[in-house]
Design brief:
Elements (H helix, E strand, L loop, with lengths): L12 H22 L2 H8 L3 H4 L1 H13 L3 H7 L2 H20 L4 H29 L5 H29 L4 H20 L13 H24 L4 H23 L13 H31 L4 H29 L1 H19 L8 H16 L2 H10 L6 H44 L7 H38 L27
Length: 507
């Protein structure tokens, strides 16, 4: 039986269009919810450490399910996976839209996540097998353009909806679109799949779920509970042990659930390392800028969303341009330039004050997004290009898994740094303020002093977190100098030279 993957003479544009619209809806839903969290906290009477599980729970489900997508892509047709993903996403959206209690809302979000976890790896795999390697950059660029418009319009649209309607309208707005996409996919997707003799190793699934799930939970909880919490470090230890066991088991199997042998290909391993470090840093902007803008500067949710809009639009418009430049020049020069811009602008974000203008924030964020647009897709595509087509499902699943894990670690790291440094700065500023007093302050003066110290301390904590993020980007910049234009390895051999390993077919 021939297990090689043939690039079709004409890419399946109809299938790609349907898949991209489905992926766009799932991306849009994520960015819509971020700005709604304060409204949800107020309406459901919950605290920040509880509401953050709407994001953490989503990441947990993704981290558990994404490693299984390599198996699912090889086992089932694109149409079947797409329909299952959209049904789950639509059911989760409907449940969330009618939720009047937090457990119900969280359940809806996690059902949404189960659909989203399947969608992205399926789309990436179809993109890889549909275009020859010399045209893949341009194709990925168009793919990036479409998907980047979701984070571009998400915060602004969310801010407008929340100012005029209840937060549940965010889900009601997405529901009819999701149903239409589901029906279009049902009638338009026509691909068929030969029966493939693959069986899922249930013990590997358990180890993967415990490993990635515990790791994500532990790091996500560190921001609110602290690193010295038993719940945090014991969960992380369990996750590491399960993950090491999972990796060793996969390396011994001829048909692993997730093939770690792909790290024998140097460009894929390098792209993964760059992506992990950069993902940790990128959460600085997504997390810290809204806190600075809304909490310290008092800017409204709608204006905060509008502030992020130009940068997201720049990133979206640059995506197809970057794709074509990647096809022409390769990933190294683009990554070096992009990472240098990202490192410099992230450093400038570590110098924030209470006086910096709204316009300057928009420009600085837009330039940062411009730099990032030159990095993520070229680095990822260059790494995947070295893999034989048989390993594409494993490569896309691995990339998406690492994105979730590194994102959770980055979030926990930066939140912890911000919190710890805020406390340290508050103590220092408090001591300085007490030294400067010449008379006993009144209660009102003490309250005002505490408020001022708290805001100054938080500003310095945010700046310190951005400084660490700039250091992480600098590490990625150093790694980028080792990038070489990837040449696809032969499909007849694995890194160990065993042609029988991980056989499967993709359509």
């Amino acid at each position: 039986m021939d297990h090689s993957v043939q690039t079709p003479s004409r890419p399946p544009y109809g299938m790609l269009a349907v898949l991209m619209i489905g992926a766009f809806i799932t991306f849009l839903n994520n960015t819509l919810l971020n700005i709604a969290l304060p409204s949800i906290m107020k309406d459901l009477d919950i605290v920040a450490s509880t509401v953050q599980w709407l994001t953490t729970g989503f990441m947990l489900v993704n981290g558990i399910l994404i490693p299984t997508t390599a198996f699912l892509i090889q086992k089932y047709s694109v149409k079947r996976l797409f329909l299952v993903a959209m049904v789950l996403f639509t059911l989760g959206t409907i449940l969330s839209g009618f939720a009047h209690a937090f457990p119900l809302l969280l359940s809806g979000r996690m059902i949404q996540a189960s659909g989203s976890a399947i969608m992205m790896p399926v789309l990436m795999n179809v993109m890889l097998v549909s275009f020859p390697i010399e045209k893949r950059g341009a194709a990925m660029g168009v793919f990036g353009l479409i998907l980047m418009f979701a984070p571009a319009i998400g915060p602004t649209l969310s801010g407008w909806i929340i100012e005029h309607y209840d937060w549940r309208m965010l889900f009601h707005f997405v529901t009819p679109i999701a149903i239409i996409v589901l029906l279009v996919g049902l009638f338009l997707l026509k691909d068929k799949k030969e029966k493939v003799d693959l069986r899922l190793d249930l013990f590997s699934l358990v180890l993967s779920s415990v490993g990635f799930g515990s790791l994500l939970y532990g790091f996500s909880s560190a921001g609110s509970k602290g690193w010295d919490s038993k719940q945090v470090y014991l969960t992380i230890i369990v996750g590491v042990i399960a993950l090491v066991w999972f990796i060793l088991r996969q390396l011994k199997q001829e048909q692993p659930m997730l093939n770690f042998r792909i790290f024998k290909y140097p460009m894929f391993a390098l792209s993964s390392a760059i992506t992990i470090v950069l993902n940790m840093a990128l959460f600085s902007g997504m997390l810290l800028i809204p806190i600075y803008v809304q909490t310290l500067r008092g800017i409204s949710p709608l204006d905060a969303g509008l502030m992020m809009l130009p940068g997201a639009v720049v990133m979206a418009l640059m995506s197809p341009i970057t794709g074509r430049l990647f096809d022409k020049f390769g990933g190294r020069i683009l990554s070096i330039i992009g990472l240098a811009i990202t490192a410099i602008t992230t450093y400038f974000f570590s110098r924030l004050t209470f006086d910096i203008s709204y316009t300057n924030l928009v420009i600085l964020n837009s330039v940062r997004m411009f730099g990032m647009s030159m990095v993520m897709m070229p680095v990822s595509t260059n790494g995947l290009n070295q893999l034989p087509p048989r390993f594409y499902p494993h490569g896309t699943a691995m990339n998406n898994t690492l994105n979730q894990v590194s994102g959770a670690i980055g979030t926990a790291l930066l939140v912890t740094i911000m919190s710890n440094r805020t406390e340290t700065h508050a103590e220092e500023l408090g001591k300085e303020a007490m030294k400067g007093l010449t008379a006993q302050p009144t209660a009102d003066q003490i309250a005002q002093m505490k408020q001022e110290i708290g805001m100054k301390a938080m500003l310095e904590g945010i700046n310190d977190a951005f400084l660490v993020a700039a250091g992480l980007v600098a590490v990625s910049l150093i790694l980028a100098f080792f990038i070489k234009r990837a040449k696809q390895a032969p499909d007849t051999e694995t890194p160990q030279g065993n042609p029988a390993a991980t056989e499967g077919s993709n359509n």
